Amino acid sequence: MLTIAAIITWITTAGKFLKQTGGDSAIEEGAKSVFSWLKGKFTRPSEQSKIEEVETDPDNEDMIKKLTQLLEDLQADDEQKFMEINEKIKDFEKLVGDKMPATAESINKNINSNIISRATIYGSVTQGNTYNTGKKDT
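-> structure tokens emitted (138 positions)
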């Protein structure tokens, strides 16, 4: 199963592919399909606006955070729908991997390095840190 961070990365990647001109038409259709599917599953106006904003401006950090929260809530509230999103994103990931293997590999390396960074930070925090005071947190 993909992490929420991975799902967000692939969703923002889909948005970036839509902003490109002259790209692979199959990938563009795949990206459109991701957003169309999301809009079909998240039907409240507040949900729609978050999805549309990331679709049109995939670098908008504020909307990415809101979309992340939307997915975190979904994961907690509706595991079936969350699994459906996982499958949709995996399909898009495979399409990009088939058409642009170097791009897909780069995206996945970025996702993996972010996961490792978060795990390292989390481990430091849970084991106590000495970053600010020189004293171990208890």
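The chain is about 80% helix and 0% strand.
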